[in-house]
Amino acid sequence: MWPWEHLAVGYILYSGYSRVRYGDSPDGTAAVVAVVASQLPDLIDKPLAWGLSVLPGGRTLGHSLVFAVPVLLVFWALARRADRPDLASAASIPYLAHLVGDVVYPALLPGESATLGFLLWPFTGGSGSSGVGFLDHLTELLANFGTYATSAAGVAYLVFDVVLVGGFVFLWLLDGLPGVAWLFPGHAPGRNRSWR
Questions:
Q1: What is the pLDDT of residues 105-148, one digit of tens each?
Q2: b/e code 153-163 from CB counts within 10 Å (16+ = b)
Q3: CB 130 within 8 A of CB 50
Q4: Structural domain for 126, as ranges
Q5: What total of structural domains would you count in the chain?
Q6: How is 89-145 classified by DSSP, letter by letter?
Q7: Which of 62, 65, 86, 194 could tie 41 with a disulfide, CB 3.0–4.6 Å?
Q8: Does 63 reside within a domain?
Q9: Is the pTM here over 0.90, yes or no?
């Protein structure tokens, strides 16, 4: 999945959970945690595999449940200690949604199938290439996607992508733009619920 898709899915799932569990949309801190958690597996694996060649692939350490479960348990303990259980959920739901998305996403593309091996790395093989160079790999991905986007299936995919990202933006606006004041404290307009 692309970063904006991980962000959209992670935020939509966490916002829905927050509304059901806590009766309200996420606050700014929880929203920022959810956004970062939705990207965390790639923020760990891609630089270490594509840039530094430390990992054997772009879906290994950060995408492995062997790594994710202990990290999320530590995060749950820290959030509990801080009396912020919502932050544990804000980290866990998008992080795990990222992993599920990376299992399901390949199955949606022509000639690809769902893979599960990276979920138990290093006991099973990871996936994705390593050592190609970050910009070279990104250029290759974008070129392949550009070719795919011109096909009928690619156009349908792009429509779905626009709906997904549009749904995220709509929900984020509906939630009151949580995280904006957290990221830009000097630009928040007073105590208005929006920008919280």
A1: 877 766 677 788 899 999 987 665 555 677 777 788 788 777 87
A2: ebeebeeebee
A3: yes
A4: 3-187
A5: 1
A6: HHHHHHHHHHHHHHHHHHHHSTT-----GGGGTTTS--BS--SS-HHHHHHHHHHHH
A7: 62
A8: yes
A9: no
